[in-house]
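Hey, I'm writing a tutorial for new members on how sequence and structure tokens pair up, and I'd like a real worked example in the thread rather than a made-up one. If someone can provide the structure for the chain below, I'll link this post from the tutorial.
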Amino acid sequence: MTAGPLGEPAVHVPLATRLAAPEPGWTVRADAIVVGSGIAGLTAALELRTRVPHVLLVTKGQLVSGSTVWAQGGIAAVLDPADSTSAHLQDTLVAGGGLCDPRAVEVLVTEGPARVRELVGRGALFDLAPDGEIALTREGGHHADRIVHAGGDATGAEVSRALVAQLEAVRDDPGIEVIEHALVLDVLTGPAGPDGAPGAACGVTLHVIGEGTRDGVGAALAPAVVLATGGIGQVFRSSTNPAQATGDGIAAALRAGAVLGDVEFVQFHPTVLWLGAGVKGQLTLVSEAVRGEGALLLDTDGNRFMPAVHPMAELAPRDVVAHAIVRQTAATSSDHVLLDARHLGAGFLRRRFPTIHERLLEHGIDLTTDLVPVAPAQHYHSGGVVTDLDGRTSVPGLYAAGEAACTGVHGANRLASNSLLEGLVFAHRAARDIAARVSGGDLVQVEPVARPGAAALVAAATRSRIQRLASDGPGVLRSAEGLAAATAGLARVRTDAHVPAAGAVVADPQVAEWETTNVHQVAVVLAATASARAESRGGHFRTDFPVPDDAWRVRLEVRLAADGTLGVTRGSTHEVPVPA
């Protein structure tokens, strides 16, 4: 289904179509460029390495610094003969609140087991059961044991280690090149189509920090670009995401003319270590798996409250648990609740959750003997750059995978441990599609042209202000009043800090400013889409529209016009029954 634009917001926040940056001082060419070194980026690069003559992998930090390394819970896949892909599909649809694309979910659950086994073939060491088979556990929203984990609660770290080791083993292969410490600025595009459609992606501009002759701003050219840049956590005051999660890929895709979808659906993890109202930055996650093993949630009066909220109690979908915690803290005049795992036994907890146990000890909390103060914090973004089942976006030659993509798998809310699986499955499909199209001549290099529209730069000093606006507006609990205030505040942020004013510039183009510009643009889109969706569903909760409305069982899509106008429209809907 396609419909026209929604009502215009009370305040219009124009967005630039490119970042203010120096002209590229060097150029490199490849057959495909992969941006990001989490599970999606590493998988895409490894799959492309033997299928195209030259693949370039660009990562913001080091290969080992992708967001995947922080994943504690595991990977959801049907490996138990007593389980079924139809059951996994149903659990995913239920969590997604009626907005999942069933075709994408079908791909995920049917291809996922093979991709997990390939990870084992690449050297990933998952925890084993006594019979020598891969051990399986359960997490919130799942009705079967299908979560693969490693090191108890260090699955992401083990997956990252195995994939990085595979890449390091082929560092000298002329078919692959890795550029670390590189921030991608913009997606380069060719001439626009006769109908004004965005030109094909033909590379990226990037800033490299201290890489010999390739430092400063350069251009990497290729007929295919894969954005696997992770999430948007640093848009908010507090998040479980690492510092580099500033929404760079989503913002760059938007500026290049790509369609974004489901942006308003932000998952706030229910159980993040609470250390006080003033704490900012990356916070310590207490994995869903702890509740999966039987930990209970208590309010600050010592009362268990989840059984009265949902039949699955502490194992309810994350949005249900997060909203319940917020309501319970309001009822008890507190700002956190308590996680009680003491009854599970000290030996079991230390063995099953060694990483969490150690990180909590760093803050003076012993998981085996203490109640753990927790509260919701931003954790995962269900939306992103809209793709088809092969990772293609609306811009020819531009692909997206992992958390930066909107494949339709998650809908309004991600089911626990489906994220690593999504990165595996769809990065694999994207790489295969690129290889086939490059070898078949469907993807050819075009030369970049200057994109019309303004260039933007937001001073890094304004980031905390932007984060406050995002947290107070499109945060856990949203309302028309709060969203309007956030939009108005974001409109007052100066986006031309590089332009002299009063005889001087506020800031020069550099990494902190480019990241802050991306944070600002993503926050603007978040506020716009959250304002447009007049209901509550999944990771989007409106206190003024607290229940789901079937009229809103539709994806909201976002496009940026050359004049900086942000368009929010009703996109596709999936005519399937809402799961019970």
